[in-house]
Amino acid sequence: MEQAARASQYPIRGLVTCAGISGREHATSYSHDAFKRILDVNVTGTFLCAQAIARIMHEQQTPGSIILIASMSGTVANRGVETVAYNSSKAAVLQMARNLAAEWGNDGAHPTIRVNTVSPGYIQTPITMPTVEAVPGLKELWEGGNMLGRLSEVQEHLSGIVYLLADGSSYVTGADIRADGGHCAW
Questions:
Q1: How far, rounded to the nearest angstrom, does the alpha carbon of residue 61 sit from its chain's CA centroid?
Q2: Residue 36 annotated among the catalytic residues of the structure
Q3: What's the pTM value of the predicted model, to 2 decimals?
């Protein structure tokens, strides 16, 4: 982060974190190491990136916007797969964003840093598709579990991120944009 700040001709004003590894294992047999690795990447990694950029924004006395990629899985349990570590990590990211928004929003010593989350539903990515293809009926279950009847594509989540980085969202902080095809609205 410091190297990027030094190389930039402008102050750093935004960050998007997108840490997300998962694993499928029954909760009674989940190994400590596998569970901890998911939390280390998804939660601790997210925090360390946000912390590093906030320090730079504070040093530069620059307002900014930080977007943490969470997941609808931080709000609901996923049908058809056992992903307790992933879901727990994404719930932690949602709570982290609210706390960072409160801490960095108006501390009196620095310009405002807004912190928000984007929570995608099921996305067709090289990480998710092997699981979808390996579990019989999972794709149909996931598609049938949302109001649009399909999995999303990566580009469908970009406009929410751009909105949260832009000045048009200058009064939005501590919020979550859940783009899940209506999955959590049932």
A1: 26
A2: no
A3: 0.95
- Given 10, 36, 90, 171, which residue is catalytic? 90
Catalytic residue among 10, 30, 86, 171: 86
Residue range 18-76, pLDDT digits in tens: 988 998 889 999 999 999 999 999 999 999 999 999 999 999 999 999 999 999 999 99
Q: What does the longest C-alpha to C-alpha distance in the chain come to? A: 55
> What are the DSSP calls for 67-129, one per residue?
EEE--GGGTSPPTTS--HHHHHHHHHHHHHHHHHHHHHHS-SSS--EEEEEEEE-SB--TTHH
**pLDDT tens digit sequence for 68-123:** 999 999 999 999 999 999 999 999 999 999 999 999 999 999 999 999 999 999 99
- Catalytic: 86? yes
Domains present along the chain, CATH in parentheses: 2-180 (3.40.50.720)
Instruction: Report d(CA 160, CA 117) in Å as an integer.
Output: 10
The amino acid present at 85, given as its one-letter code, is A
Rounded to 10 degrees, the C-alpha dihedral 73/77/81/83 comes to 60
3-state secondary structure of 16: strand
User: What's the sign of the alpha-carbon dihedral 169, 164, 155, 185?
Assistant: negative
C-beta separation of 122 from 71 below 8 A: no
Sign of CA dihedral 153, 154, 160, 162: negative
